[in-house]
Amino acid sequence: MRFFLLIGVVATLVATAMLPARLGGPSDVSAAAPRLVVLVTIDALRADHLGIYGYSRPTSPNIDAFARESIVIQDAIAQAPYTKASIASLMTGLYPSAHKTYTTAYAVADAMHGHVSGTPPSTDVLPAAVTTLAEAFKAAGYATAAITTNPFLIADFGFSQGFDTFEFVGGEGFAAADRVLGRALDVINQQRRPLLLWVHLMEPHSPYTPSQALRRELPPLGPPVLVPSSVTIPPWIAVDGSRDVRLYESLYDAEIRTADAAFGTFVAALRERDDWHATALVLTADHGEQFMEHGGFEHNTTLYDELLRVPLIIRVPGLHQRFVESQVELVDVMPTLVGLAGGEVRGTIQGRDLRPMLNGQPMVADPAFAEIVGQQSMVRTREWKLIEAAGGGGELFALARDPREQHPVDHPVRAAELSRVLDALMASAQRAGATIAGETAPISPGTKRRLEALGYLNR
Fold first, then answer.
1. Alpha helix segments (H runs only) across 296-340
2. What is the DSSP letter of 319?
3. Residues of the chain with pLDDT under 70
4. Would you say 154 and 148 are in contact if contact means Cβ atoms under 8 Å apart?
5. What is the DSSP code string of 185-230?
6. Is the CB of residue 327 less than 8 Å from the CB of residue 379?
7. Which of 193, 246, 243, 244 is nearest to 219 (CA)?
8. Has residue 126 been placed in a domain?
9. Cα dihedral 267, 271, 273, 276 sign
10. Among candidates 30, 92, 48, 5, which has minimal Cα distance to 346?
11. 390 in a structural domain
């Protein structure tokens, strides 16, 4: 009965056009806005590989310790299974179909052969018409700074919008987490105004290259699980020709441990500051990572939970630690942080302000939405999940008894109910994006090389 009540509530909200702007009501989360707000996004970090979310391996002792003094959301769902569209949703509170920042141009197919004919490849950029997290914080009187390490999260692609300072930390490979977070501390220590700082770390994104010491500490568990011969292991993650899934998963775990150590050092330094009592710190991820759960590696290609369920850990001054058995979306982060800062979200968004939830007040449980625009979309409650392909067909999962989504169920009535909700959510995204014109920009040769090395240019 609760399922059908939920569907009815959502259908009513969509029908009355209330769903796109889901700002929460009054909240007494904090009488004063935090002086320092830090958002740390960790690339490709799936929630179920952290101890605080029940993982048995010691991948995240420092994140777990931070979580024990913070609010931990059980089910946080990303809006896309890859960085560009997901971070754009986090920064704008909009679904990918609305913000239109989710793919490269079709001309990129030429670049996949190592050369470009005709016009240079181009990619979507974050449109100037959207209001970003940074812009809302600037309007609230904050200085704004960002440090990124992913070659899709760069100024040329619009992600600097609203930031006073925007730094891409590069090099031959991805910048290490300890280097990036060390730079973040420099930025914090140099700032005298209230500050929003966004930091994006690349570990544990592929290729998985942890130290030998961590490889020894987190070896593969159990006998090898071999990748079928029909599946190609991406060459940039292959190690000595191994086809053992457990080897690659263990390397991924060791990469998490690398990021965790750097995060622990960063939090310890923040604790030493005089304004720790006025510091809000949020840790989340853009998407997860897959290890043959549904026949593939890395991310981008599916809407299963190993790619969409990410950690969301929120430390707000004055609030006690709590594990919240609820479901939220990454689009909720933007209006929630803006609300904490005493700011205002302008325009229609899909995200909602979670401050009542953070303060222990009940909030209506909304379904979560994610999409690979033009290919697949999904709607998820905590009990059920429907994935639909753009060309027809889909899969329905009963998450309560099949959390790993291995056994699609045949339940036409429930599938039809969820399909109607999915259609309504997609329609809300289309309405929200109706006045947002998509923008593109050419990809520089240097950026193109980095994106090709990551296999990104087909996204």
1. 305-308, 333-340
2. P
3. 1-31, 104-121, 444, 446-459
4. yes
5. HHHHHH--S-EEEEEEE-TTSSS----HHHHHHSPPPSS--BPPTT
6. no
7. 246
8. yes
9. positive
10. 92
11. no
CATH number of the domain within which 144 lies: 3.40.720.10
Neighbours of 457 (CB within 10 A): 19
Do 125 and 57 touch, CB atoms closer than 8 A? no
Counting beta carbons within 10 angstroms of the beta carbon of residue 41, is it exposed (0 to 12), middle (13 to 18) or buried (19 or more)?
buried
Q: Is residue 168 included in any domain, yes or no?
A: yes
350 to 11, 77, 309, 430: CA distances (angstroms) = 15, 13, 18, 11
Give dist(CA 83, CA 79) in Å, integer: 10
What is the CB neighbour count within 10 angstroms for residue 88?
31
Q: Model confidence over 104-152: pLDDT tens digits? A: 653 333 333 333 344 566 788 999 999 999 999 999 999 999 999 998 8
User: Judging by beta carbons within 10 Å of its beta carbon (0-12, 13-18, 19+), is residue 234 exposed, middle or buried?
Assistant: middle
| Residues paired with 329 in a beta bridge | 77
Residue whose structure tokens are 């690979």: 372
Phi, psi of 243 (to 5 degrees): -115, 25
| The pLDDT of residue 457 | 56
Within a domain: 373: no
The rounded distance, in Å, linking the Cα atoms of 259 and 361 is 33
- Among candidate residues 62, 296, 315, 72, the one with its CA nearest the CA of residue 201: 62
If one counts the domains in the chain, the total is: 1
Give residue 217's domain range. 25-367+437-453
Other beta carbons within 10 angstroms of residue 222's beta carbon come to: 6
Distance CA 246, CA 256 (A): 15
